[in-house]
Amino acid sequence: xxxxxxxxxxxxxxxxxxxxxxxxxxxxxxGKLEQVLARMLSLSEGEIPLITGAGRTDAGVHARAMVxxxxxxxxxxxxxxxxxxxxxxxxxxxxxxxxxxxxxxxxRYNAVGKLYCYSLxxxxxKPVFERKYLTVLDGVPDVPAMREAxxxxxGTHDFKSFCANxxxxxxxxxxVDRIEIKEQGEIIRLYFHGNGFLQNxxxxxxxxxxxxxxxxxxxAQVMRxxxxxxxxxxxxxxxxxxxxxMKVEY
Length: 250
Hints:
With 250 residues, the protein is an alpha+beta fold. The chain contains 5 helices and 10 strands. The longest helix is centred in the last third of the chain and has 13 residues. It starts with a strand and ends with a strand.
């Protein structure tokens, strides 16, 4: 019986070349899932199941709740699929939930919102145990200034200045309805919620807000960068290890 299997996935992206399958390397999240599902479904050599993810996280980026779906012919129950996947996936990839979705469910096209968190460390000590999930700063940024700059980004805008792909042919208009910056001791977390994000967009937004935080930009410059549609005007792309996909909404 053909099922549309919906997967809720978490992973530590440290040693992977991102989510998306790449023919020249098995070290992608999608690639590892394909290997396990192909074995579970007893597919012929060379056959791979078509897995659709809600997005494409970059190399080194993590996820607490990536959503994917795959159409497969199987008599296994949701519980059996969950147990099989978690048995054979590597320790840094886990399936939290398996659900049989409607035939028309599509993990990417049906998504209406995403929440990302970027985590920064600004303490004097080294974050030894959290080092793979934080970006370490050389100083303490001006968080109120960062919040002022972030307010300029709220709404529906053309975020071309914050897209890493200069040849982007599709629309670069997105809606960001919330940016929260929270201080938790020596950790600063930036939460970005919107209807979708461009390639490297959250990391470029973070890098730009940090330029404001360290006084290399004024908060008002962010609006001019947004209006310019020029990636060169924005700040640097923040490193991948601090970024985590927290939630996909449907």
